[in-house]
Design a protein that fits this description.
Radius of gyration: 21 Å
CATH topology of the largest domain: Aminopeptidase
Shape: globular
Strand order of the largest sheet: 1-2-12-3-13-16-14-15
Largest sheet: 8 strands, mixed
Number of strands: 17
Order of helices and strands: HHEEEEEEEEHEEEHEHEHEHEHEEH
Structural class: alpha+beta
Strand content: 25-35%
Number of helices: 9
CATH superfamily of the largest domain: Zn peptidases
Helix content: 25-40%
CATH architecture of the largest domain: 3-Layer(aba) Sandwich
CATH class of the largest domain: Alpha Beta
């Protein structure tokens, strides 16, 4: 299980609102955690946080997780005070009605309820229609547009309102596991390496904008020019009712992180991770990302002259919902695996195919 300090850091991180493009509050949490163990911490103009531990060699290794979570922005307020939004990231809109959200306005939080026209008021088919984002609104308890504008403004950001829940000693539920889990791992590896001598130069990156623009991974990798890059993210599980493993493969919560295999990923890095997992008895799973990975790796692997890239993921149930579930043991095992990987590296590694 995670130690007390790391669990507290993870809980603070997932609780801190950081919708895509507005990650600064989460980066402050990451900086505080890394302040005592990194040789250098950089915040760039895009909002990325890059922490460095210098090694004795020239090899540069980047481990990146994205700090942004999905969210919304206030787009329009009608005359009755109902609020309409644009999305920051991907949503299943049919999931939204009835959920609570937090509207972040000038340092205050305004609670709202996502609403839609009740099924009883809809004529025709008994089947629930496929909703568009313009079909739902947020009710903040205002009676008029002018009243609503005393509480919120066009452009305010919005996140799910959700509490952290421990469903068992191992299973944790949060609104922002995607992808504060990856940020946590990159930072926790830095803590693990703090008092160790390493040969590779280790860059722990908390990137921005993955859910919308991918700008964080691209711009941070452009600065660092890593020889090796590992994108740490979350991935879907197929251990739920109705999941077709012929399509999604065999991925379960609590059975270790996944290592992705595919065209964008470097086989030497994937093989080395698998060998280290076997050596140190760390459980892993395999998943296929045949072309694009859907992670920061897509923005990194072919940048400049390229980086030897891998994707390591935490199995995550109920992705892009207010109740994403992961295993704390999976988190801890991912930290162990990547720590061992960084420790094993030196300038002699031959990355040519």
């Amino acid at each position: 299980m995670l130690n007390e300090n790391n669990l507290a850091f993870f809980k603070e991180l997932v609780s801190t609102p950081s919708p895509s493009g507005f990650e600064a509050p989460a980066q402050k949490v990451v900086r505080k955690y890394l302040a005592s163990c990194a040789d250098e911490i950089i915040n760039d103009l895009n909002g990325n946080l890059i922490a460095v531990k210098h090694g004795s060699g020239k090899l540069k290794v980047m481990v990146v997780g994205h700090a942004d979570e999905i969210g919304f922005m206030v787009n329009y307020i009608d005359e009755q005070g109902f609020v309409y939004v644009k999305t920051l990231g991907g949503f299943d809109v049919n999931l939204l009605p009835g959920l609570r959200v937090d509207i972040h306005h000038q340092g205050t939080v305004v609670r709202g309820i996502l609403g839609k026209k009740p099924i009883h008021m809809q004529r025709g088919s008994d089947d629930a229609p496929k909703l568009k984002i313009e079909d739902v609104w947020i009710d903040i308890g205002a009676s008029t547009k002018d009243e609503a504008l005393t509480k919120i403004s066009i452009g305010d950001t919005i996140t799910y309102s959700s509490q952290i829940e421990m469903l068992s000693e191992d299973r944790i539920v949060t609104k922002a596991t995607d992808n504060k889990a990856g940020v946590f791992i990159a930072a926790a590896v830095m803590q693990e390496l703090a008092k160790k001598k390493i040969k590779a130069n280790y860059y722990a990156v908390s990137s921005v904008g993955e859910e919308t623009t991918m700008k964080g991974a691209r711009t941070s990798a452009y600065q660092i020019e890593p020889d090796i890059a590992i994108a740490v993210d979350v991935t879907f599980t197929s251990d739920i009712p109705g999941a077709d493993k012929r399509i999604f493969g065999d991925v379960s919560i609590g059975k270790g992180p996944t290592i992705a295999l595919g065209a964008a990923l470097h086989p030497l890095i994937s093989d080395k991770l698998r060998q280290l997992a076997e050596k140190h008895k760390i459980p892993i799973q395999l998943e296929i990302a045949a072309s694009h990975t859907g992670t920061d790796a897509d923005a990194i692997h072919s940048l400049r002259t390229g980086a030897a890239t891998a994707v390591v993921s935490i199995p995550n149930r109920y992705m892009h919902s207010p109740n994403e579930m992961i295993s704390l043991n999976d988190l801890e095992n991912t930290v162990k695996l990547i720590t061992e990987f960084i420790k094993s590296l030196d300038d002699k590694i031959d990355l040519k195919r």
